[in-house]
Amino acid sequence: MTTPSPTHPSNAPLEPVWADVAPLGPVAQVAAITVLWNDELTNSSAERMSGLAARFARRLDHAGVDSLCDATTAHCRAFIAAPLGRSTPPAPATMHLRRTVVRSLYRSIAWMGGPDLDPTRAIDLPPRTVRIARPLDDDEIVLVRVSALAYRARRVHAPAVVALAEATASTGEIPQIRWAQLDLAAGRVELPGAGRVQPRVNPLTPWGHAVLRAHYETRRPAMSDLVAGFAARGPQQRHSPQAAAVRLVRHLLDAATLAGETDIKPASLRLWAAARLLRDGATIDQAARALGLRSLDAAADALGWQWDNPA
After folding, report:
1. What is the rounded distance in angstroms from the CA atom of residue 244 to the CA atom of residue 240?
2. How far apart are CA 175 and CA 188, in angstroms?
3. Is 1 exposed, middle or buried (0-12, 13-18, 19+ CB in 10 A)?
4. Environment class of residue 63 by beta-carbon count within 10 Å: exposed (0-12), middle (13-18) or buried (19+)?
5. Which of 68, 95, 163, 238 could make an SS bond with 208 (beta carbons 3.0 to 4.6 A apart)?
6. In a domain, 93, yes or no
7. CA torsion angle for 256, 262, 263, 264 (degrees, to 10)?
8. At 74, is the secondary structure helix, strand, or coil?
9. How large is the average pLDDT for residues 271-293?
């Protein structure tokens, strides 16, 4: 594989400071935060989530709340359940989206060095599906990314874990991947396979590419070093890196306040990438290859894909 380029990407994650934003009111605070979402979102998602965040801020301002950090669970619940128009109740998907937007705001505050708050944690909503595990959607991916950037750990680089999972790496593969398997010049990663998941080479997402290049620039690791930092601590713990990867992904889902949804599992993170391929016009065969699955039926079941789809 190609040695990573030393050039720092122009779209590498920023390092904002909450102390500069804290004295502002909710409307200005949200405006500052949503600017930082531009690198994490597609244009359509950025417009939709930023618009909802601005509405939440205006509601707080109207209620006399001086800061996002002063908002209560009741304020958040009122926004999430607010009727459409005069009396039409919001659909479950709308309520989930509103809750995701509010949670993204509070995870962003923690990422910026502010307090780790989440007044939506006690707000339960019914699951959107009855499947065992579903792919995360684009808005939820943003929430996990921000949670990873806010995570503090000495030995494990959480954003790198998310970056690899966004390339469909499983929790069995993530602890195995070394810098020699990354081609940052081309923006791709050689995935080693694990269990029933087959080896393959997949592209990194733009966000994942930026995160990994910035991580390389900061650490200057050897090509033989593990990208995410997982390692077994003894001969009797050869399976512990995968278990640690599962625990970390669950922690990030919990930090994003997604773990309480029964249809979200650690696999939901890597399934997002394959679901996005299908949305972009790929066939189920291509999605299965991206996931490293030989069985098209297994891929279709995991992605909720119906065989009568035109693709």
Report:
1. 6
2. 17
3. middle
4. middle
5. 163
6. yes
7. 30
8. helix
9. 91
Looking up tokens 């065992």 gives: 132
Terminal-residue alpha carbon distance, the chain:
33
Q: Are residue 44 and residue 179 in the same domain, yes or no?
A: no
Residue 182 near residue 278, CB atoms below 8 Å = no
Pair (165, 290) in one structural domain: yes
CATH number assigned to the domain comprising residue 299: 1.10.443.10
Length of the chain measured in residues = 311
Regarding whether 27 and 171 lie in a shared domain, the answer is no
Q: What domain count does the chain have?
A: 2
Residues 165 and 91 in one domain: no
For 55, residues 6+ apart whose C-beta sits below 8 A from its C-beta are 79
Cβ–Cβ under 8 Å, residues 211 and 13: yes
**Full domain range(s) for residue 148:** 138-303
Percent of the chain with pLDDT strictly greater than 90: 41
* 13, amino acid identity: P
Residue 1 lies in a domain: no
Please provide residue 202's backbone torsions phi and psi, each rounded to the nearest 5 degrees. -130, 155
In 10 A of CB 187, how many CB atoms? 17
Residue 309's nearest CA partner among 137, 233, 62, 300 is 300
Residue 247: which of 163, 149, 174 has the closest Cα? 174
